[in-house]
Design goal:
This protein has 85 residues and is an alpha+beta fold. The protein has one domain: Ribosomal Protein S5, domain 2 (2-Layer Sandwich). It contains 2 helices and 3 strands; from the N terminus they run ββαβα. α1 packs across α2.
Length: 85
Amino acid sequence: MFAAFCLRRKDGREGARLGLTAPRALGPAVVRNRIKRRLREAFRLHRGEFGAGWDIVVNPRRAAIGAPFVEIEEAMRKVIEKCGH
């Protein structure tokens, strides 16, 4: 659904931050913006589950275009398990 890269911040600030990329290969701007909105919402809903001081960069794949929001949330939970604690 997407690739995620996590990096622990060393600046001492609390909270996790999200960075998104959406290459033109995914489709026109409308499609890319919709994917980014859905990923931001999934991150917002689960932001508190991430440990303090993480930067997460998400690169969506074509599978994210038509995926139900529940699947996007599940994929975000896997990112949390991988690097959020």
